[in-house]
Structures are given as C-alpha cells and as structure tokens.
C-alpha cells in the first residue's frame, strides 16, 4: 500500500517541539564500566502543545484484578548490542574506528525494555526497536528469574517482534479486542520503567487511530491508541490492558519535551498485534496485504476542489495496474468509506483495518463515486501482486567462509539502495573472522556475481577454483560503508 503523506516541514513558527521517545532504554545507574545504556528519541510537533491532565477513577472502578493478571505476564528485557567480535585485527587498519564507531575498548551497549508473555510455553511480544540488532537478549520475570531469549521474528514496519524463552507453564495475557475500546475507557499500562520491576499505571483512552508522524520511523502503519496512562523509558513493549486484564495494546512511544512522561502515551492496537504476531510465529515474516492504490487524507482544500460534502474517508489518488483494486473496478477519484462494514474516517483507521488482513483475503470495500455509494469485492495481494506466502529464509552456515548468513529484508535493501545481499549473522573461526569481518556485514558480490541466497553464494565461490583460489568479495556495513577485498581459499 502506497500512501501520499503531507509534509510537516512547514509547521507554524512557535509550535512547541515535542520529543516522541521510544521507551527503549534508560541510563543505567552510574554508567557501569564497559556498559552504556541507549535511549532513542524522536521529535514531533503536535499542535496545540500537549498538556498533562489528571483523572480520578470513579469509586466503583477496581483495577486490582486486572493488575494481578498482568504484572506476572509482563517481563523486563535487557539487550546487549554491539558485542566485540572474538577475532578482530587490523585488516582494515584505520577503517576500524569508522566501521565500529569510536567507543571505548571492549565497550558494549545495553538497552532495556518490556515484553508481554502471550503463551504458557514462552512466546513473548515486544517492540522491534527493543530487540533490533541485539547480540544477546535476557528476559527477567517478575519473580526475578532470568532466561536467555531468541528472536522468532521481527517486523520493522509495525515495530513488533516475537521472542521466545525455553520455559513452560508461564503466566500469560489473553487478547482483548481493540476495536471495542471507547474513548474515555479506563486502561492500565504495565511495564518496567526506569529499569524497575513490573509497574502498573492507570489512565483513560484519550483517542484512537492516532497518526503521530514519527520522524525517521520505518512504520508503514501508524494508528495508535492514545492514552494518558504514565509510560516512561523502559515501558516499550509492555502491555496496555483493559479493566478485565485483557491485552488491548503494546505500549510503544510517549510524547514528551524531557524524554520522560508528560501527558500522553501511544500503543499499537492488539488487533494489529495479533495479526503480526501470528504471521511471525507461523512464517517468520509478516504477510502484508495490499489493495493496489495510492491514497490521501481528505482535507478542506481537497474537499473544496472535488466538491465533497464531508471529510471522512480516504481519497483514491491512483489505482495501480495490476492489483486487487483495479481488478475489482476501483477508480481514481473514488472515496473509501468503509471496509467490511467498519467506517473509515481517514488513512490511520484505513491502514489499521487493512493491516489485520492477509494476501488472499477477500474484503468488501464501500466506496463513494459521484455522490453514490457502491460496494466492491476486492481480493488482497502481496507487494509483488500475487497471493503467495512470503516466508523468512532460515540462516545457513558456510564452512569455507566460517560465517552464518541470512537474506536481507526489503527495508534494508531500500535503505541501503541495493537489490540483493546476504547478511552475516554469526562469525566463527575462519577466513572472514581473521580478516576482521564482523557480524552484520552484508556480502553483495562474490567473484563479480550477485549473491542473495545459499545457492548463489556457493555457485559464486566455485569460480575461485578457476582463479587459483582467489576470491573477490564486495559488500557493506549497515552504516553504508562499502568494502571490496580479495583473499585466498
């Protein structure tokens, strides 16, 4: 799904600058030697400026049951990022500082967040930004037990990830229904702010389908639940629950001038979480459905230009050929008013609804054309325009190079402006480790041949036997630094 997004660069002077803080990390006590905490911040410009408000629960509102169900099912997550490779020498000389950054020798980066147990056998959902790039993930339960977790799947576009610990009979939260949430309804935020154990705060649903325009974010879908429940650094990936103790959202971000909670927080709706988590657990990759259109929100200017009577719905700016929308008879200029009977007020609600479906699903799209309503039956497809399931490639080990490799994501290819490559996920004793190559290096070419999977890599390496054992390799690090080098097998 491609969307036309209005630029916010022309915001009026004097609008208060607010930091949208991904509650990923908090500085750890007194900067423990060889460890450094990480905190990511994002900036937005809300108008009018956000002000905190105080609400008091009615006398008949009881949060005890919901809190008791939640605290043991929410975990503390510690990630270690950028661990120094075991074998590292001066193969690249002065490039070393550029590639790894100017950090103190033997230093590591430590980040903190929260997660929600969603099954008794150890599956945990959290934010992608909590575990992205982690070399080691440690989960601490409310009873202080610690276990190491492995990543099952991640989705940068929805900022969600699934990790797993080896355990049984764990307390877990059941899914609620975020569509049923009402503005003004009481909710609880449960997480581990400031590296504390499970903490519960209460607030109300302030708004739904909130698009907060996170600068630099990789999210394709921004349709957050906005609450005034206190959320702080370390709460990312924690639970938003209703008064019945059901999971209704995953806490993700806060609006703040200081980096700490000041008024509003934002959570990913659980109906979207449920879809993404299901895909990651089954396929290791999100099955994103596309309608095959470009859309834009309807504002006063567009409504006046097109003679529209109200601003609700999304405007179809272009229908892409081929695609599900074109096959169903949708036209440029149509206005989408509902999907499967659910009203569409704007892009945020439309994307939230669409994000709950998979390629191959058939949906009923109600459109307005020439001031008349019409319902179209649309078959959703994937990005490539087919109904095929997209599965994540499993890592594979190459004995000759001494590394484990895996295909790279579309998001990585788009960011680095490359069309193929293999990312190193683990380095052991071998030619590349002796040459200073470390984890996350992306191999793009071997012996002048593009590589993107196990088959193409092995075929390219065979050519070295025709070159007296010389291997020519090209690649880059995630920071964009390109490297070409040769070695003997």
Description:
- The chain has 489 residues and is of the alpha+beta class.
- It folds into 3 domains: 15-285, Thrombin, subunit H; 293-379, Roll (Pdz3 Domain); 396-488, PDZ domain (Pdz3 Domain, Roll).
- It has 10 helices and 29 strands.
- The protein has helices spanning 64-71, 95-100, 128-131, 270-283, 300-306, 324-328, 347-354, 410-416, 431-434, 454-462; strands at residues 2-3, 18-22, 35-37, 40-44, 74-81, 108-117, 123-126, 134-140, 146-155, 160-165, 186-191, 199-210, 224-227, 239-242, 247-256, 264-269, 293-297, 314-319, 335-339, 342-343, 362-369, 372-379, 396-398, 403-407, 422-427, 442-446, 449-450, 470-476, 482-488.
- The strands form 4 sheets. Strands 1, 17, 18, 19, 20, 21 and 22 form a 7-stranded mixed β-sheet that branches. Strands 23, 24, 25, 26, 27, 28 and 29 form a 7-stranded antiparallel β-sheet that branches. Strands 11-12-13-16-15-14 form a 6-stranded antiparallel beta barrel.
- β14 and β15 (247-256) form a beta hairpin.
- The longest helix has 14 residues, at 270-283.
What's a quick, concise take on this entry?
The protein has 489 residues and is α+β, with helices and mostly antiparallel strands. 15% of the residues lie in helices and 35% in strands.
What is the second-level CATH architecture of the largest domain?
Beta Barrel
Distance between the termini: 45 Å
Largest sheet: 7 strands, mixed
Q: Estimate the helix proportion, in percent.
A: 10-25%
Q: So how many helices?
A: 10
Number of domains: 3
Tell the overall outline.
globular
* CATH topology (fold) name of the largest domain: Thrombin, subunit H
Query: Which segments are poorly predicted (pLDDT under 50) over 5 or more consecutive residues?
Result: 1-55, 84-105, 215-219
What is the gyration radius calculated from CA atoms?
24 Å
């Amino acid at each position: 799904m491609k969307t036309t997004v209005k630029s916010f660069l022309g915001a009026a002077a004097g609008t208060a600058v607010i930091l949208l803080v991904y509650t990923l990390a908090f500085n750890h006590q007194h900067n423990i030697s060889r460890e450094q905490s990480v905190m990511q911040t994002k900036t937005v410009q809300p108008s009018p400026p956000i002000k905190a408000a105080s609400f008091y629960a009615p006398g008949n509102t009881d949060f005890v049951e919901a809190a008791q169900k939640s605290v043991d099912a929410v975990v503390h997550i510690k990630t270690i990022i950028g661990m120094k490779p075991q074998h590292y020498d001066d193969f690249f000389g002065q490039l070393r500082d550029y590639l790894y950054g100017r950090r103190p020798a033997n230093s590591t980066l430590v980040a903190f967040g929260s997660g929600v147990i969603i099954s008794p056998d150890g599956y945990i959902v959290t934010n992608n930004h909590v575990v992205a790039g982690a070399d080691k993930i440690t989960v601490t339960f409310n009873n202080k037990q610690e276990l190491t977790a492995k990543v099952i799947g991640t989705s940068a576009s929805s900022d969600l990830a699934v990790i797993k610990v080896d355990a049984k009979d764990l307390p877990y939260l059941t899914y609620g229904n975020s569509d049923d949430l009402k503005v003004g309804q009481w909710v609880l935020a449960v997480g581990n702010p400031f590296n504390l154990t499970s903490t519960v705060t209460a607030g109300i649903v302030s708004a739904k389908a909130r698009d907060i325009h996170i600068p630099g974010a990789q999210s394709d879908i921004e349709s957050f639940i906005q609450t005034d429940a206190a959320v702080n650094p370390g709460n990312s990936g924690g639970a938003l629950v209703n008064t019945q103790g059901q999971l209704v959202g995953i806490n993700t971000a806060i609006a703040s001038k200081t980096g700490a909670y000041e008024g509003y927080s934002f959570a990913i709706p659980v109906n979207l979480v449920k879809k993404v988590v299901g895909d990651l657990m089954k396929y290791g990759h999100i099955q994103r459905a596309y309608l095959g259109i470009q859309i834009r929100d309807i504002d006063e200017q567009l409504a006046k230009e097109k003679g529209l009577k109200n601003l609700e719905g999304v405007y179809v700016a272009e229908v892409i050929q081929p695609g599900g929308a074109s096959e169903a008879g949708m036209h440029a200029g149509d206005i989408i008013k509902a999907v499967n009977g659910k009203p569409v007020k704007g892009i945020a609600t439309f994307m939230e609804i669409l994000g709950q479906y998979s390629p191959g699903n058939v949906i009923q799209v109600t459109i307005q054309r020439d001031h008349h309503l019409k319902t179209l039956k649309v078959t959703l497809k994937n990005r490539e325009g087919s109904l095929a399931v997209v599965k994540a490639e499993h890592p594979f080990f190459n004995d000759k190079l001494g590394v484990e490799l895996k295909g790279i994501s579309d998001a990585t290819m788009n960011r680095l402006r490359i069309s193929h490559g293999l990312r190193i996920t683990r380095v052991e004793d071998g030619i590349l480790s002796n040459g200073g190559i470390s984890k996350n290096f992306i191999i793009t070419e071997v012996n002048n041949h593009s590589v993107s999977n196990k088959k193409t890599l092995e075929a390219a390496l065979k050519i070295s036997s025709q070159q007296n054992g010389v291997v020519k390799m090209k690649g880059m690090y995630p920071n964009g630094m390109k490297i070409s080098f040769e070695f003997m097998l």
